[in-house]
Every structure is written in C-alpha cells, then in structure tokens.
Write a structure and sequence with these properties.
heterodimer; A: 336 residues; mainly alpha; B: six-stranded mixed beta sheet; four-stranded mixed beta sheet; 17 helices
Chain lengths: 336, 529
C-alpha cells in the first residue's frame, strides 16, 4: 500500500507542475493587462506604465513564470494585488469554509445517495426505483442557482426556518479555531449554541451543492446493486436462507459501491467547482467566493494560487478514493 | 396518517426551535446598520476610486470639502472656508481647530499636506485628475491651520477635485511604511481616519466583512443626529437576489443602487423596505472603437446611433428609472447643452446611414463584437435590445461576456479595445471634466474613459481651454460647444442619466442621497425601533 501511495504522490507532482505552468500562461497570455485593472478608474497611461513596472508585468513572460515558480516552491503565492495581503493567508482564512461545505456535501450525498441507490436497486422497476429515477434526473438537470433561490424562498423567507446567507449568525461568537470547521471546533469547545448556529447555516448550501452529487451516487449505487444481485453468491446465500437485510446491506452493498466510490473522487472536483456558485449565492466565505472576486478584479495571483490549490486537493482526494477502493476490494491493489 | 397530540407538540417545538432567530437579530437592534454593498478591494482611499471606496471614505475619513445632497453641493467640511488669489493660482484652506483623528491626535495642516502628497506619490486612480496640476511640493502648510495649494496654472476643476482626497493620519501610517510605500500595504487592511465611524480592525476580512463603530469625538459632533447609528456591519451580498431577499427579511438595511427592474418591483411590494429613487450623475454609454472599421466611418457610427431604442429601453426595460441624456454630460450639471436633441431611434435613418457607409467602403457586414459586463444585468439587457434592432438594419452584433476589470485592461490599446462595449461613467468629482473632459480629450487615450479613441483637435482645444479657465460662466459655453461638436461626430452612443434605485429598509431614517457615494454616508441616518 505504501508503494502505491508513493507512486501516486510522485505521479501527481508533474501533473501539478503542468497545471501551474498552464494556468500561468493562460492567465498571462490573454490580452488583459492586470496593471490597468489595478490602476483603477481615472488612471492615466503613465500611471498604468508605472504600475506595470512596479509589479514586473513589463518583464518577459518566461522570466515572470520562472520567478513565480521559484516563489511557489517556497510556498509563497505572492500577495493579492488589491488587498496587499499574502494570498496564502487569505486562502488559509477561507479554505476551511470551503472544505466544510464540500466535505459536508459529499458526506450528505454519500450517506443519503448510497442507501437510496440500494433501495432503488433492490426494488428494481417498482415505485421506489421510479421515484429515484425521477429524483436523479431532476437532481442532475436542475441548475444550482435556481435551486438555491427556491430553497432560500421556502426555508428562509416563507418558513423562516433557516438563515438566508452567511456562515454564522449576527452576534454569534464562534469558539477558538482548532480545525477551521465551525462544527468540529464547536464540539471540541463543547459549545452547542455555536454548533447549532453553524449547522443551520450549513443546511441550505449543503442541500444545494450536494443535489447533483447525491443523484449521481444514487444512480451508480443502483446500477452496482442491480449487477451484484445477479451474482451467484447472492443466489446461493438467498437459497441457504441467509437473512435478506444482512445480505443486501453488507455483502451486496460492499460489492456494489466500488463504482460509486470511484465516482465520489470525480464528484469532488465538481463539488469544488460548484462551490463557486453556491458560495456566491449564500455569501459563504470560502475560496469560491474569493475566486469570483479575483476574476472580477483580475487579481491573477489569487486566481493562480486557487487553481493550484484546487488541483492539490483534487489529487489528494483521488488518492484517498483509490485507497478506499483498494480496501473495499483488495484485488484492486495490484491493478492500481 | 394519525399524529397524536404529543407528537404534534414535539413537531411544533422542533419547528419553533428551527425558526431563524438569528436572522432577525440585526433588524431588531436599533443601533446596528447592516449594508450589503460590496466592500472595496482594499481600504486605502489613495489606492482605489470607485463607488464602494467612496462610500468607505465618506464614513471613515474626512475631506477639506465634501459633496452633500442632491443636487450635490460642495460644502466646507474639515476646512471652514477657502480663499483663492485673483490669478487662480494660490488656494488657501483654513481648517477647523481641535479636530481629532481616531487615535486621539490632532489633525493639522501638515497632515493634510501629507495626505495630498501621499495620493500623488502612490499614483493610483484618485491621483489621476490631480496630477496634471499638482506636484508634491505645491501643497504646503503656512501655519498649523492653513493648507496652501500653489498651482502652476489656473485650473477650472481644481476645487471640484478637493473632495477626492481623504485626509489620513501620518502618525499611524509612518510606523507601518515598508520600502517607502507610504504605508500602502498596511493601510490596505487598516484605517487612519478622523471620520464619523472607525474600523474595528479585528472584524475585517477582505471582501467579506468589516465592522465600524461610531466615533463619538467626530469633529462635527452628533447633536444633529442624537440617535445616530452606533455600529455599521458591512456584509456584502454577492448576488443581487440574495441581497434583495436579505433586505426583505430584515437582515440587511441597504442594497446597492444597480438593482434590476424585477428586484425593484419586488421591493416596492414589500411592507418592510422601500426603493429610494434619485436622479444621479451616472451615464450609460455604448462605446465604439473609432479606430476600427467600420467605426472609423462617421456614417457607420450614425447608423448605430439611430438603431438604439432609447425610449423603449428607458420606459420598458428600466421602467423609467433613467432620464434620456443624449450627450456625454449629465443633464443636471452646469455645462449641459440644452439645445441638443441627440440621436433618436429611427431604423429608417439607421438603414440610410448604413447604405451610405457601405457605399463609402465601410465593412458594415462584418460581425461586430460588443462586450457586456457580467454580472451587471442592465448592460446585457441593453445589448440584447440593441442586437435585435441592429439585425433588422442588417448588422450582425455578437455579444461577449466580460468583466469590468478586463475591459479596463484591454482598453489601454486601440488594437485590443473591443469594437463596442457598454459601461457607466459615475460621479467622482462634480465637474463636466469628469465626463466629457476625460472621455473625449485625446490626452486620456489609453484609459477606459477615453476608450472610443476619438480624436478631434478642435475638441481637444475646447476641453483643455475649459480645464484651464477658472470662471464657471466662461467654462460652461466651452463644454456646450465641445458637446455639440462631439455629438455631431457621433463617436459613442449616449443612452441615459441614471435614476439610482437603492433598496432601503423602512427602519432606516435620514437616508440622504448624493451622486458622490450613492447615499452611503451613514452619519445622517438613524434606525427606527
């Protein structure tokens, strides 16, 4: 297993380096001039030239790239052109919010999607299966933006059950940061009030972000269950009178979720991308929101750092997915 | 399904527990004002000049003079008054005595000198209008309470530009300077003002949130507003629909002033918020790159100018929240030429000019790209309307989504400036120079305001003469004349002067709109309980 992890980590390094170079070139090759954006309204060409020189935008692209890579290898992503704060610091402040949202969504999608898929597979072509199919198609087709507004209108405006936006309520003092997850930190501090507040703020963003993933996981699990149910060992165990529930929820499920687990790794990327929209609608203070602002203000160091960071997280999640894959089916170690 | 009384009781209790008590907490607190405007990209008023940074500066900093009211008037602020020499070169401003910065130190003329020199040295947007006329050593302090500006040349818009500079406290900035940066890095996340509200530094997360508390020792005192707001919570809502919903459910007190019509109608139906409508000085303009064919042909430009449905857009799409303005000067400022009708929507005329341009060799059938600003919905609506009418004339308009930051950056060169793009020109200093002067004097080529790349020596002369003339009565005819020449050349398409529509909670009392800052100055407001 260690060899496998080492191999995967080593193979990820050139991919991430390629991502860094490609993103840098893509951002810097477009005709946009970050110096002009930075100079702001009313700026004169002379001011723009001065800023271009100050930030080194007038240097050859290759030189800028080499300097940037050297910086990144020292874990220095430079500073935001606007806030003048280290990009790493800004990301560190916001990353926990995004991770809480995306992992929360992934957890919710898995915990609900897998059982739904099992139920639909077991009740193939009966009403639970039809309902799931309808739900899956809707979940995959519906636009997150629209769904979020509908949830806000119903649960925040009409029923007044859940907060409309943000990560914490007005006036709520949060416990000291340990992990960055407000839920976990609240539990560590024994603060049920802040836990409840954070949980309530998390519900609508998670419901929005997880919808597509949930539908996808349920569909994959259903297909896996349908296939597994045809296997000889299932027929044998049913014939010897093995308890049906135990058979389905342990043996069938274990053999059915491999495809769904692979899907979870891929879905994580989609969740991170989807977080950009969800964070904007719910004013969730994560890196998605930060990235949108960076794009709108052409803050290219932020764009670069966030892209690389997402690449790293995506790589880690996929390595973990492969590990889980191997744990579920040890035969896969060799193939992996 | 049967639900027992006990079960019903449990469900009801759960529903009550789930109700969003935190949401209404802000609304019930009569001392906390929550605004949903975007935060400026950083907090230093010398680095950024846009609507958000202007709002921040109006609350946290003071200026020598300040614009107030609508129609806006310059009124003395830190300065008690000013004198100007007969030749218009020496300007002396007398300061109020005993003004205190937020750290308790006294604000003196030396601090004003430092503030102007800092703006000029940093050289970002607020410096641009000042740089042609002001050098660092032209600002001096003859005594503790007098600031003197010695201009090399008489300059018409000079007084109008005075409010552009926020007065900062060098005693808190200088210890935080790095490599001669005038404290730019530090002040981007902090403040050094004397204004009515002071930043609570621990609350600040760039672009996400910031809290400000009332500064009890503000030099103006608070007797005019004894129930003034004690705390401002700046909580940007990134998406318009969320911003409006937050206003409607009482968790936000004020929105931005770019609301689309459907959101305006939604607020107007609400019982706990209203829409403050104020004619402002924000022009909507479609730019044409006059250096690129077919826009280098005057008949081609006129074909486009006659193909925009001005009345339809103003009355049907923005529902009357704008006033037709056919020239590049707001219709509520001096220098506006009242006798210019401008271009009307007439597809027959558009077709006639189209044919004329074609006969002169202009490539009218090539696809034209028009860049619209995301996420500003009105720019998309205007462009789509334009696109459909241009189709009937035979012009193929393609719409391209873009961001303002990118458009500003590509407008630095004629060859990268799009065929067309659409934007507003807001009020930063209230002088025709802010609009027509910077949009059509060719010395500003390379800036987004002059991105049509129009060049007419006669216009350059008129605008420069107006700039270097001090008497408003002499300047007004120069701007009127320049406007006539520019409109005849049709370099751009001028659509309207905006009526700002800002969603305001009904508990907000004393909201005062001003074209500079869009009504974001909180010191006049209080909250009804």
């Amino acid at each position: 297993m260690l060899r496998f992890i080492l191999r995967r980590v080593l193979s990820a390094i050139p991919s991430l380096f390629g991502l860094l170079v490609f993103t840098f070139l893509l951002i810097r090759i477009v005709p946009a001039d970050p110096a002009a954006a930075l100079a702001g309204d009313n700026a004169t060409p002379q001011q723009i030239d001065a800023i271009r020189h100050e930030y080194g935008f007038d240097r050859p692209i290759a030189e800028q790239l080499v300097r940037y890579i050297a910086q990144v290898f020292r874990f220095n992503f430079g500073e935001s052109q606007y806030s003048h704060r280290p990009v790493g610091l800004d990301i560190r402040q916001r990353l926990p919010a995004t991770l809480e949202l995306t992992f929360g969504s992934l957890l919710f999608a898995t915990l609900v999607g897998v059982p739904l898929g099992v139920v639909a597979g077991v009740h193939h072509n009966r009403w639970p299966d039809f309902v799931l199919r309808l739900f899956s198609i809707t979940g995959l087709a519906v636009a997150a933006f629209w769904f979020a507004i509908m949830l806000q209108l119903l649960f925040s405006m009409q029923l007044d059950w859940l907060p409309l936006r943000g990560r914490t309520g007005t006036g709520m003092v949060m416990p000291p940061e340990v992990t960055g997850s407000l839920l976990v930190d609240s539990l560590i501090a024994g603060r049920l009030d802040s836990f409840w507040d954070a949980l309530r703020h998390l519900v609508l963003p998670v419901a929005t972000l997880s919808l597509g993933a949930l539908a996808s996981i349920a569909r994959f699990t259903r297909s896996g269950v349908l296939e597994t149910m045809q296997k000889d060992f299932v027929l044998y165990e049913r014939a010897v009178g093995y308890p049906r529930r135990r058979l389905i929820w342990i043996y069938v499920l274990r053999n059915s979720v491999i495809a769904a687990v692979s899907q979870i790794g891929l879905l994580f990327g989609a969740l991170i991308a989807g977080a950009v929209v969800v964070e904007s609608i719910y004013d969730w203070p994560g890196i998605g929101n930060y990235t949108v602002q960076a794009i709108l203000t052409a803050d290219y160091k932020v764009m670069l750092a966030v892209t690389v960071l997402i690449g790293v997280i995506y790589t880690i999640v996929n390595i973990l997915t492969d590990l889980v894959h191997g744990l579920l089916d040890p035969r896969l170690w060799e193939q992996l | 399904m049967h639900i027992s009384r006990r079960e019903f009781g449990v469900l009801a209790a759960a529903a009550l527990a789930f109700r969003d008590h935190s949401a209404s907490a802000a609304a019930s607190d009569p001392s906390v004002f929550v605004t949903g405007m975007d935060l400026p990209a950083n907090l230093d008023p010398a680095q950024i000049l846009d609507v958000q940074s202007t709002q921040l500066a109006l609350n946290v900093y003071d200026n020598l003079y300040r614009y107030e009211g609508n129609p806006a008037k310059m009124q003395p602020w830190l300065a008690t008054d000013h004198t100007v020499s007969a030749d218009g070169l020496i300007w002396d401003f007398k300061l109020h005595q005993g003004v205190k910065f937020h750290d308790g130190s006294e604000l003196t003329a030396e601090d004003v000198v430092y503030s102007y020199q800092r703006v000029l040295a940093i050289g970002r947007a607020p410096a641009a209008p000042l740089q042609p006329i002001l050098k660092p050593d032209s600002v001096t302090a003859p005594d503790r309470n007098t600031v003197r500006f010695a201009l090399g040349q008489a300059y018409g818009p000079f007084l109008a530009m005075i409010p552009l500079v926020a007065i900062v406290n060098p005693r808190v900035i200088k210890p935080n300077e790095e490599n001669g940066d005038w404290g730019a890095k530090w002040l981007a996340s902090n403040e050094a003002g004397s204004g009515a509200y002071k930043l609570m530094p621990a609350s600040y997360v760039p672009l996400e949130k910031a809290d400000f508390e009332k500064y009890d020792d503000h030099f103006m005192g608070w007797t005019d507003n004894p129930q003034a707001i004690k705390k401002i919570e700046w909580r940007p809502a990134k998406v318009t629909s969320t911003r409006v919903l937050a206003l409607l459910n009482g968790t936000l007190d004020m929105t931005d002033s770019f609301l689309p019509v459907d959101q305006v109608e939604r607020i107007e139906k609400s019982s706990n918020a209203h829409v403050a409508k104020n004619v402002t000085m924000r022009l909507l303009v479609i730019r044409m790159n006059n250096t690129k064919p077919p826009f280098d042909n005057i008949n081609a430009r006129k074909a486009f100018a006659h193909a925009f449905n001005y009345t339809g857009f103003i009355e049907e799409i923005v529902k009357g929240n704008a006033v037709r303005d056919p020239v590049p000067i707001p219709n509520n400022i001096w220098g506006f030429p009242k006798d210019i009708a401008g271009y009307d929507f007439d597809l027959k005329k558009a077709k006639a000019y189209f044919d004329k341009a074609v006969s002169e060799g202009a490539p009218m059938k090539r696809p034209i790209q028009m860049h619209v600003q995301q996420p500003l919905e009105q720019t998309v609506q205007a462009s789509q309307l334009f696109q459909s009418d241009l189709t009937t004339v035979g012009i193929d308009l393609k719409l391209v989504n873009d961001t303002f930051a990118n458009l500003v950056s590509i407008a630095t060169k004629a060859e990268t400036t799009p065929d067309m793009w659409i934007h507003w020109v807001s009020a930063y200093y209230l002088d025709p120079d802010n609009w027509i002067g910077q949009m059509y004097d060719s010395r500003f080529h390379g800036t987004w305001k002059a991105s049509c790349w129009y060049k007419n020596p006669q216009v350059d002369d008129l605008l420069r003469k107006a700039r270097f003339t001090t008497d408003q009565e002499d300047r007004a005819p120069l701007y009127e004349q320049a406007a006539k020449v520019i409109v005849a050349d049709s370099p751009d398409i001028w659509i309207y002067n905006m009526v700002e529509v800002c969603g305001v909670s009904n508990r907000v009392q004393g909201f005062r709109h001003c074209p500079v800052g869009s009504g974001g100055e909180v010191r006049w407001m209080h909250l009804a309980s």
